[in-house]
Structures are given as C-alpha cells and as structure tokens.
Amino acid sequence: MYDPTVARLTYRALLGRRRALILGALPLLLIVISVIVRALVGADDQTASDLLGGLALATMVPIIGVIAGTGAIGPEIDDGSVVYLLSKPLKRPTIIFTKLIVAIAVTMVFSALPTLIAGFILNGNGQQIAVAYTVAALVSSIAYAALFLLLGTVSRHAVVFGLVYALVWEALFGSLVAGARTLSVQQWSLAVAHKVAGGDLVTSDVGLPTATVLLVVVTVLATWYAGQKLRSLTLAGEE
Amino acid sequence: MAVEHPVTVPSGDQTRIHNIGYRTYDGPRLGRSYATRSLYSQSLRGAYGLGRSVKSKVLPMLLFVVMCVPAAIMVAVAVATKAKDLPVDYTRYAIIMQAVISLYVASQAPQSVSRDLRFKTVPLYFSRPIETADYVRAKYAALASAMFILTAAPLIVLYVGALLAKLDFADQTKGFGQGLVSVALLSLLFAGIGLVIASVTPRRGFGIAAVIAVMTISYGAVSTLQAIADAQGSSSAVPWIGLFSPVTLIDGLQSAFLGANSAFPGAVGPSNGEGVVYVLAVLGLIAACYGLLMRRYKKVGL
C-alpha cells in the first residue's frame, strides 16, 4: 500500500527548492508571536488557549493542510505529468494512500510541532493546553490532508475550494450558525483535545464519540473516493 | 590532362535573402500604448472570467454576488424600517467583507500572472512593442480596477438605496465619497500584495495559498496581539501593531482621516499623527509592490 518512490517524489514536490522555506514561514511566525505574547503578558492559560485555538488551530493548520493536501497531487494533474505516474504498474489507491501519508506527515510537522513549541513558550504546558492543542492539530492534520487530497483529484480549483471550506465555512459560518460547527474538522479535533485537556479551557460543540466517528469516516471515505477518482481520471486540457 | 581549376571564390558575402514575393505589412502600427491598453482590458475581463471558460467565470462572479447581496439586504431593511441611517457605514463595509475580498484577490492575482509564467508567454509579450513597465502597469492597473469594481459595487448599492430611502443627501454623499477613497486605496494595496506574491510562483494553486496565508495570518496575528495589548491596558500600542497587516492598515487609515469608526479593539483608531504614519505605510507599500514587480519582470522577461 505504500510506495517509497512515489513518497520520495511527493516529498520533493512539496518541499523542494524554496517551498519548504515558505511552508516554514507560517510556523515560525506563530512561534515569534508566542514569544512576544509571553513577554507582554507572562504565562496565562486563557491567553495561551485563545492564541493556540484562534491562530494555530483555526488558521494555520487548515492553510498548511490545503498547501500540503492539494499540493501533493494537484500540480501533477494540472500540468499533466501525472500520466507518467499513472502509467506505472502501481495500483491507483496505492498512489493516493502514499500521497496521503506524505501530506499528513508534512502537515503534522509544519503545524502540530510548532503548536507544541508555541504552547510550551506560552504557558509551559499549564493545564495540558499545549499537549491538548497539539493532539487536536495532529488529528485535524489527518482529516484535512485526506479531505484536501480528495479535492485535489476532483477539481482544478482545489486550493480555492479548500480555502473556502476552511475560512468561510469553518471560521465565518461556524461563528454565526451553530449547526455548521457540527460539520467542521476543527470542532471534531477540539473534541479530542477536550478529552486530553480535561478542563473547560478547551471546549467543543461536538461530543467525543460523534467527533471520532466523523473524523474516521471522513478520512476513510475521502481517501477511498480519491482512489476511485484517480482510477477514472480524465486529463483535461488547460481551460 | 584535366587541370583542376581551383574554384574561384568571389570576394564578399555570398548570403542573400531572396525576395520570394511576400507582401510586407503596410497597415497601421498601433504601437506601444495600444498594446498596453489591450493587455489591460484583457486582464480586467479575465479577472471576472469574461472571455474565458464557463468554469472560470463561476468563482469571481460568485464572490461578486456575495459582496453585493448583504448590501442589498441592508438597504431593504433600511427602507422597510424607515431607518434614519444605514445599518453599516460605507467605510466599514469592506472591513466586514474582508474574507471575500481576500479570497477574490487570492484567486485572481495568480490567474492574472502565474499562467503567463508557467506557459512561458512572458517573453512573447516582450517581443511586442511593450516594455517591462507597460506589462507591470497593465497587470497592476487591471487587478486594481477589478478589485475596485468588486469593492465599490456594494457601496453604490448602499448609496442608491440610501437615496431611495430619502436619507440625508449631504451626509450620505460625504460617507459615500469617503468609502470610495478607502476602497480605492484598499484595491491598490491588495492588488499589489497579491501580484507580488503570485508573480514569484508559476504554480497557480501555490500562489493562491500563499496570498491567502499572507492576508489572513497577518490579520489573525495582528488582531490577536491588539486584543492582548488592549486587555493588558497598553492601548497606546494598539495602533502601532495595526501597521503590520493590510486590513488593519486600511482600517486605521480610514478611521484617522476618513471619518470611519475603527474596528480595533477598544474602538480607538490611530490619532492624526499616527494616521500620517498609516498613510505613509500604505503609499510606501503600494510603491514597494510596484518596484518589486518591476524588478521581478526585469529578470523573468528574458
């Protein structure tokens, strides 16, 4: 199910040349902001929770997820070089699964790791906040990567749709309409984080059983469907 | 006995171009400014998907509608309830809808320049009479105009609605004028930032993500820091932090000079002195974007 060559090529496409620097700029900004906040405010659990929840989990993880998830397959389909990959004796689901693993790994390294570091800088993991948000970032990395990888195989405008989902649906509608929060990767991962932290600083609108089931279902379904899409991929010309 | 005559090489250049009778072009040559204008109008139409496939019309048109619908609803409410004033200031509207504006610039800036880089059509443009500066100016002006159309259209809806609801004419016209100045600056600033980022990468998808990351992360970071500074009682730091993201720059500028209510925490905008710094920062950023684009295309055109 896992093909090292495909993985190597995908890593190179995602992190090659200067792209790793750009991906690295976001986590670096988060850490710089945490240092500033720690210097201004001192260790404060509520501030740490707000910053990690508002900036790291709500903005940074989805954006990194979009870049890694759609970037793992989108550009190849876009410029047509995916035919060289598809013409190899590899199962299409294997290609998708390998690319998913790579996308998850990249998202985790560039979002969960800085979240953990920022959490320790902000309040030294008081009330398990740093660990809770890191777990949330890890869990949501998996779901986001699967979801956006699927988008990459379905549409040429995957990045835009991914961002519309992450920013408009989760952030804007999520804050206005309570029902939208039930269908949001962010809230599902917060439910897991709530379980880890235990306190009432990290809260979610979704119960843990529902959240876990939905996370697993979305990840599996998206991966399976992406494999199916790749099996019957038609290469369209440039619009 | 055959004597080998050495082949006499006549002096002088042997090569010649035979005239095989093609007609030369003797129609009018429309020149550099015409080419620039064409590039401008094509890019502007392209920013709304006109002259392109149906699929690429969907997103810009959708975002345009999303921009205008809330304005229409506000007008309808104001007319129905016979309100004395519109529910939202002209200057505030763009700040509220910033997510839509960011999405628009993120999707259209790479569409405008990244494809030229990817399909290596930039050298073809420069084999025509236009120069680097013409290309940059045409693309910049086109995207800024497209953004201005996007941000000014809802203001026109609000203004027309306000006049139909017989609100105070002088008051509304002043607010409308201030709103237009503010969105014009916003269009120039956002278009510049979007184009600079998009012109670095030939990958359209990556460009979109990079532009949106710069817009939303900087806003998220700045507003978080402002909220913390405000809560810590150091409200004097709030305007200075606002200098570091495009949205708060416009917000601060218009609350200092264009009579807007600031969306900063504590609703305290920059004072006039600080406002001058905001104006300088906005104009400086626009000039810097133009300069960076010129520098980029000096290289990439060859």
Model description:
The complex is a heterodimer of chains A (239) and B (302). Chain A is 80% helix and 0% strand. Chain A is mostly helical and 239 residues long. Chain A has one domain. Chain A is globular and about 55 Å long. The model of chain A has no long low-confidence stretch (mean pLDDT 85). Chain B contains eleven helices and no strands. Chain B is elongated and about 90 Å long. The relative contact order of chain B is 0.11. The interface between A and B is medium-sized, with 39 and 30 residues.
**Tell me about the biggest sheet of chain A?**
none
Largest interface: A-B, 39 and 30 residues
Largest sheet of chain B: none
Helices and strands of chain A, in order, run as HHHHHHHHHHH
Output the radius of gyration of chain B: 26 Å
Total of DSSP H or I helical runs spanning 4+ residues of chain A: 11
Secondary structure class of chain A reads mainly alpha
Taken from the alpha-carbon principal axes, the silhouette of chain B is: elongated
Beta strand count of chain B:
0
Mean pLDDT of chain B: 86
Q: How much is the average pLDDT of chain A?
A: 85
Number of strands of chain A: 0
- Specify the oligomeric state: heterodimer
Global outline of chain A:
globular
Order of helices and strands of chain B: HHHHHHHHHHH
Q: Ranges of chain B with pLDDT <50 over ≥5 residues?
A: none
The Rg value of chain A, from CA coordinates, equals: 18 Å
Low-confidence stretches of chain A: none
Instruction: Please report the distance between the alpha carbons of the first and last residues of chain A.
Output: 34 Å
End-to-end separation of chain B: 61 Å
